[in-house]
Amino acid sequence: MPQNIYVTGMGIVSGIGLNVDETLSSLKNQQSGVGKIKYLQTVHDIPCSEVPLTDSEMKEMLHLDESQVYTRAALMAMLAIRETIEQSGLQLDGSCKVAFINGITVGGMEKSE
After folding, report:
1. pTM for the full predicted model
2. pLDDT digit string (tens) for 80-92?
3. Whole-angstrom distance, CA of residue 52 vs CA of residue 37
């Protein structure tokens, strides 16, 4: 039995934009987010594309308790999920089926490094 799939919202948090519009604009303008590492605590000195926010700034944006531990990947995912839900206009009250597809970075490697 065929099923319909509807994309109702998107959310992006990346090194070139903190939402879909910023990221699309950066792509259209061929802007690179690659640079020196500023936010990750690492022994590596290689260029990378970082989300230009500290973990504390992301926690504040998400109204999370500063004392709780979250990986950067989880914080970025929560910001993207929030944008997706807002963009979709869905009321998540259990009246409809909702699926979530997530693509993420290295998934918390900064905590294990």
Report:
1. 0.80
2. 989 988 988 887 7
3. 10
Closest CA to 109 of 84, 78, 83, 76: 76
Handedness of CA 89, 21, 71, 59 (dihedral sign): negative
Q: What is the pLDDT of residue 4?
A: 73
Cα gap 77→71, rounded to integer Å? 10
